[in-house]
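Practice problem: predict the structure.
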Amino acid sequence: MSNPTPPWQTLSEIIAAENRVALTSFIDTLSSSETARVISRLSEEEQLKLFSILSPEDAADVIEDIPEAQAADLVEDMPSAQAAAIMEELSSDHLVDVLGEMDEGASKAILAKMDQEDAEEARMLLEYAPDCAGGLMISEFLVYKIDNTIQDVIDDLQANREEYVDYHVQYFYVVDRNEKLAGVLRMHDLLFPAREKKLTEVMIPSPLSVFDKASLKELEEFFDEHHFFGVPVVDDGQRLVGVLLPDAIEEALSHKKTKTFLRLSGIIGGEEFRTMPLLSRSGRRLSWLSLNIVLNIIAASVIALYQDTLAAVITLAVFLPMVSDMSGCSGNQAVAVSMRELSLGRVRTGELLWVLAKEARLGIITGLVLGLLLGGVAFLWKGNPWLGLVVGGALAANTLVSVSLGGMLPLVLKRLKLDPALVSSPLLTTVTDMCGFFFVLSFAAAVLPKLAGM
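Answer:
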């Protein structure tokens, strides 16, 4: 039985034939995730040719199916005029996300080629932080004046139905003569009243809204309390500037979690894909790994101070990584709890002593239990109670240090305006290794005659 042809090979053949109809039809059969995977398997030349064959509308659909970082790399390599034509077809939120991932020079060149009104709107949205209401809102919504009638709205919907087909139309918004939000209309409110009725007679006045500078945390709390299909976004002057959808909040929260995970894993500078340029990917990784070399040299210097002790009791070399690793795991648990409580507002950066008291008590219990276990293993292996005492005591002491430090580090780093997710782990690892080596070797040096020959 022959293996099926990989979809990227099929796509490559269609691109070579330059058949737009076949190309569009084939892409329509792919899911969003499959589209991103298939395009990533094409060569750079094939990717550029793909977007030159597709119409701007179809190319925009493909751009919206792939991650913003990958889309930005593709669009940056296109001629500015071609890129601008595609970007004009994107929804406002996708447009800003992709432009935000680009180099400043590339994004300016594309904006210069775009329709002036679309470009001005994009520039306005780009001024907002990406994780606030203004950076997450959409600008495709329907708004009417306060003195309009039901008939005016229906006439506008009919006259512009092709343009509005992709708009968010769960709600219609009403503004006064100064563009300030005055009310909101549901679809239901347009169907049954008399056509000559004013919007003020059927709208919901003074609707709930969010400020354009509202943080992601505030927005999450808003949608947890109010299960709306969308909420109007207003500026300081109560002027309507956009609409925020709950899906945008969920996507932003997911992106934030992914970004935190990548930082904890040592991927600096945002998302990484294997389709990115080699030098860019290596730079993101080396920025973290280079820092770790320095920190590990510091930790290893402790061993150099006690090299005679280690040479006399070579068995200790087996337990050194176990002591540092086990206590390091305990410390990382404390880091995770502190970061979680910081994000929820359950603890403040000034509450170091309270956190220390809580974690130290836990560290004593955890350290004693782990120390007894590892010390027992050492005793059973070599039959020397002093070895068990050295190893177990070192693990207990290091666990206490690691847990206490792990609980406080995120608070200290947050107060210093450093990223706890990025800095906590390497600092904790260095201190845990250094203290672990110190405790094992210094305890062993104190009872060296009891351990000689092991």
